[in-house]
Amino acid sequence: MRNRIGDRLRGDTELNDLPAHALLNIINVPGKAFASPWQLILRRFLYAMILLAIVSVLAYVDKDGYTEHLTFIDAVYYAAVSMSTTGYGDITPVTQQARLINIIIITPLRIAFLILLVGTTLSVLTEESRRTLQIQRWRKSLRNHTVVIGYGTKGRSAVAALLADGTPASQIVVVDSDPRALEMASNQGLATVHGTATKSDVLKLAGVTRARAVVVAPNLDDTAVLVTLSVREIAPSAMIVASVRESENMHLLRQSGADSVVISSETAGRLLGLATVTPSVVEMMEDLLSPDEGFSIAERIVGEDEVGANPRHLADIVLGVVRSGELYRIDAPEAEIVEPGDRLLYVRRVFG
């Protein structure tokens, strides 16, 4: 049954097989942006002057190979009229002064004219070539990253937590079908893929098959189930963390392959209820869930000097012990002694 669902989710065209230049409107990889168009024009002008200087030196070195014995000004003049495609006409400057004026004033103006005339076309072609090469390199180097599917409120919060916890922006890929959401993600320096995450070819473009973890955070529960099915089918070893609004749909996500499920509506409801009775508890919970200030819940490997100790007696406030992928609360018998290879779930102080 799962295979039949997967077949229906696939499109007729595998986006993953398309060349990089065909993905310019689908994948956006953040890169260095120039301050203004004037900076681009100035750079092109400087490149043209460098080429002009090189040709001038070459012509002067071979000054005896021309119809007349060239001075250095003659060589620069020859390079200028040749590189600017002016050619030789019936009116040519013959005195040194006239040729110097041609070099200093007329030729730069001619080059500036060519830049303004074809600069826009060249800029578009250059930018598309640069982005095509950038996408090719990005797809080849993408490994052990985190894919966030859905950049709504939950997706943005998940990305904020990842960034605050030290995950580089280059290791996060956002998948969404809303251009405005993708623009917000791109402004944060994140790579984005435009498309519906229920399609396996879109997931492959985001590198799900090589991802370390996948965060499934769409707005609808049925979409979350379909996305989880698709992700688990093409990425059997990836960790899938999914969000669901209603607890009654939690088992569907588990059956679809989610490793962890967060019930967003019930969690928010509990906090609302606590806020009416003990608002300080809610304030502390929000502090623990905000990794960029105050306190936060973190995980770390045990130190060599901590092996064999009781986690209650360590310097950190330990909440649980993770052993072989299984979490044991601090009051569990399995968490009485810290063993080699364990990871500690503890309260970390975040310095602003």
Automatic annotation (TrEMBL):
<dbReference type="InterPro" id="IPR003148">
    <property type="entry name" value="RCK_N"/>
</dbReference>
<feature type="domain" description="RCK N-terminal">
    <location>
        <begin position="143"/>
        <end position="263"/>
    </location>
</feature>
<dbReference type="GO" id="GO:0005886">
    <property type="term" value="C:plasma membrane"/>
</dbReference>
<keyword id="KW-1133">Transmembrane helix</keyword>
<dbReference type="GO" id="GO:0006813">
    <property type="term" value="P:potassium ion transport"/>
</dbReference>
<feature type="transmembrane region" description="Helical">
    <location>
        <begin position="100"/>
        <end position="125"/>
    </location>
</feature>
<keyword id="KW-0472">Membrane</keyword>
<dbReference type="InterPro" id="IPR013099">
    <property type="entry name" value="K_chnl_dom"/>
</dbReference>
<dbReference type="Pfam" id="PF07885">
    <property type="entry name" value="Ion_trans_2"/>
</dbReference>
<keyword id="KW-0812">Transmembrane</keyword>
<feature type="transmembrane region" description="Helical">
    <location>
        <begin position="45"/>
        <end position="61"/>
    </location>
</feature>
<dbReference type="Pfam" id="PF02254">
    <property type="entry name" value="TrkA_N"/>
</dbReference>
<dbReference type="InterPro" id="IPR050721">
    <property type="entry name" value="Trk_Ktr_HKT_K-transport"/>
</dbReference>
<protein>
    <submittedName>
        <fullName>K+ transport system, NAD-binding component</fullName>
    </submittedName>
</protein>
<dbReference type="InterPro" id="IPR036291">
    <property type="entry name" value="NAD(P)-bd_dom_sf"/>
</dbReference>
